[in-house]
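Holo prediction. Input below; ligand is alpha-D-glucopyranose.
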Amino acid sequence: MTQELTSPSPAPRAPGAGRGPAWWRDAVIYQVYVRSFADSDGDGIGDLRGVRERLPHLRDLGVDAVWLTPFYASPQADGGYDVADYRAVDPLFGTLQDADELLRTAHDLGLRVIVDIVPNHTSDRHPWFTDPETARQRYLFRPGKGEHGELPPNDWESVFGGPAWTRTDRGDWYLHLFAPQQPDLNWENPEVHAEFEAILRFWLDLGVDGFRVDVAHGMIKAPGLPDIGHGAQAQLIGSQVLPFFDQDGVHAIHRAWRRLLDGYGDGSGRQVIGVAEAWAPTPERLALYVRPDELHQAFNFQFLNAPWQADALRTVIDASLAATSSVGAPTTWVLSNHDVVRHTTRLGGSLARARAASLLMLALPGSAYLYQGEELGLPEVTDLPDEVRQDPAFFRGGRATGAAGPGTDTESAPDGVAAAGGQDGFRDGCRVPLPWSGEAPPYGFGPGGSWLPQPADWAPLTVAAQTGDPASTLELYRAALELRRRLPGLGDGPMSWAPAPDGVLAFTRPGVLCTVNTLGHDAELPAPGTPLLSSAPVTVQDGTARLPGDSCTWWAI
Ligand code: GLC
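Structure of the complex:
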């Protein structure tokens, strides 16, 4: 008998979210990069109303929660990660009322909402920084070295390239681990703690379900701000503890925030969460951020960085699970975000691999983060003209991946344009506005244009074009998320490896077995069960399963 599964099995939708108090332990959380999701007013820039209008897409996709990137008042020197007022919505994105309405609509649809909080630095237009008196107390100013103080206080480099210090017209220097428009806060000052706790409360009172903590590994610097002793420091991020990243002192802040978040739990079991964007050198050090009295989750960038090889994937998966389970936290999985090359492109420009990697991710125990557009199989846009680029790393000659750590293996070319392996190395290429419908740009993104040009060949990738096509990536994600909700064995819970040929991974979850063929050609193994869902056509004949190259299959066992 030959069984063939060429398309996702259609299944009725389960009722909306509501997975109980610990909803986050296996939540699928969808990252909305607000500026590029949907534009309601025709200025070419996505906004909160646009997000609200498109929330049904996320409900139909089947995610549990949405993470919104910063939409606060900001000069936009770094896509809104330079906040001038943490309690105001930037007019580009709407109003506080729009934020309120978005939250209500999301909750009505059964979607939780997480917002970004940026505590390592503010904008240089923040009133604390523009007032020289408060600035001195609340940021990191130091006298320069050299006879006339003309040299930076130490050798630290900005993640975006160049020195991490800028000299003021008063002659002293201030620290900015990112762009000069993003001065680092002085977390030795209790006023900074108090202000951020008040900001958290402001958004919690409005009804948010949690925070993605930007640069959660950065707030505390080593005493005396010691030199590192060599350059190319961005490439060390995530491979060692640096005097400005992953200092033990940050954990006291996370513990205080956890107490605050827990205080917002209520009798109905509401749990609001914190998720750390933290770059730590090992899974064990990353797990420190998710100890029971710290944040709930941390992004697992080790998984994102793993090459498409069975052994390497297995090693990263084992290390991730071991580290987080040692502290009782769920593991998270992520393949793409607004700081790295989209995984369709990163995994060798192969949509087949990207689809397989996504199904693998969604079969693993814990919580998964999706980045807008990955459900459409969008590639990185690698040919943006320089004049439209906005990534500050581009202008400072740094590394695209520096903001998030050593995310991909691209390297800066001498002229500052990173281009290795045919991949544009900066961060605009993953931020191109989403294609929703239609035959030509802006593909339903909004009534006007789009702030970054969309490729002319994206018509087949729109949400409308893929909807109802069982072979599409969008329907694959919908089917996978539907199965995750329907099958209790997926999500949080046990996993164990099963025997498989070289280059193939096989593991069981309760009631489900997942196979991943990382080879570029077919692989065979005894059929482990009945195929439930596959990223590529899988066949079963006389008890033998034939797995296409670069594919992932879920089996009912
Ligand atoms: C984080 C953000 C990134 C930003 C940086 C500075 O890494 O993800 O986009 O540039 O922090 O805030």
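Residues 6-18, 400-423 have pLDDT under 50 and may be disordered. That is the main takeaway for now.
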